[in-house]
Amino acid sequence: GSKQGLVDAIIDSLMDAEDEALREHLEGIEEPEERVRTLIDEQRQISADWRGFRAFYELLPHIMRDDRLREDLAADYAKSRELDRQTLAAGRPGGGSAGAGGEDLDKLAALSVAVVEGLAVQYAADQEHFDHDGTYRLWEDMVLAYLGEKSER
């Protein structure tokens, strides 16, 4: 019914839809490495949607000036980080149980969310020259190596 309500609905629908799509793709995937690969592939697809990100970034200055909208956005980011964290924890060899390194996984999840946004901006700015897919392949290799190394400790 208002401009603020419209902005709320847009933010919620974008982030919730992305998280729900990821949950659906992860359902039934048991193998740890495949869970991580699915997460990163979903992130790659999200950041390739430069039109959606352009709309989000056009709204961002308005969001940051409004305490309630900023709090809503922070809550949406927290949900996304938690979903990534759960996926990364379950994606460790042996699952997320023994020596899960909760703080490290929280930080890795925060980086995971930041990678999506940062690569989306770079791709939107220079689709012709930016190696979006190659950058995600490197990100995937880095995450899998990190998780494998942490599980060996």
Total helices: the number is 6
Average pLDDT confidence is 86
Cα distance, first to last residue? 54 Å
Low-confidence stretches: none
> What's the helix-strand series?
HHHHHH
Kindly name the structural category: mainly alpha
Shape: globular
Helix content: over 70%
Alpha carbon gyration radius:
16 Å
Question: Mind describing the biggest β-sheet?
Answer: none
Say how many strands there are: 0
How much β-strand is present in the residues?
A: under 5%
Task: Please give a structural write-up.
- With 153 residues, the chain is mostly helical.
- Helix content is 82%, strand content 0%.
- It is built from 6 helices and no strands.
- It has helices at 3-26, 32-47, 50-65, 67-90, 102-125, 132-152.
- It is globular.
- The protein starts with a helix and ends with a helix.
- The model has no long low-confidence stretch (mean pLDDT 86).
